[in-house]
Amino acid sequence: MNKRQTRLFAIGSTLVAALAFLGMTIDSHRQFPELTNADSITPAVTRGNDVWHANNCINCHTLFGEGAYYAPDLTKIAQLRGAPYLKAFLREPERFYNEEQHRRLMPNPNLEDPEIDDLIAFLDWVANVDNQGWPPRPILVTGSSIPGTSLTIAQQDISGPGKTENQMPPGARPVSGNESPIALGEALFRTATPACNACHSIAPGVNLAGPTLAGVATRAQQTLDSPSYSGKADSIESYIRESIVSPSAYLHPGEMYSAEGVSFMPTSYAESLTDEQIDQLVQYLASFK
Hints:
It comes from Stutzerimonas xanthomarina DSM 18231. The protein is mainly α. About 45% of the residues lie in helices and about 5% in strands.
């Protein structure tokens, strides 16, 4: 090309790029109200935002990638934990974490119940913002290690049983219908909404927001044989299913797993999973003898 052609090409390319950028900017602003869940911003959400800032929560936590990294990202915490857990946690965080065991300490913010309700409303709004699938997995921060290994709980949740960190967990790869129900259940354990491994470990003795599921089949039979059991299950499989679809039917011993007779386990799986998927998840969990 001669100089004139080169100049025209440069000017034309710049105009095309500028128009494309302007078009994408306009389209982004067009989608913002829907993507940001703006219609759900209630007075409670606004007050909760004020509580978040007044207590400097961002000094330790992150939202949408903004903030500090001393404590877990809370972008999806309302979906991963649920309102009953968050309310009990914010009232008495020392019940759930302590410096001696977890190498960190969540300070008690000393919030009044209305402030807690508003903060949960704010976090629920944040969790429902369409952020294109980010974060890609639950971000767990803890100092506890798995007995007999050098892995942290967070590493264990990434890798899964018998895998290295360089291998993809079942929830990160395509799962075909030709795989066994247990393999499909293992994938669901990491991909259901909320993901089971956001609250449960499968390593012995490692309790997160929920009790470890290592040996859950054996404990299920022990619970069924116990006179204190008041649910309707009559087998290990039906007990595990009951725990998934009706988690408050039997409350796991330990004050950090329930409050006021209600389990912290989400009650949404009966609607978000099909009967076949629940069966697959049950078969996977029933394999932990």
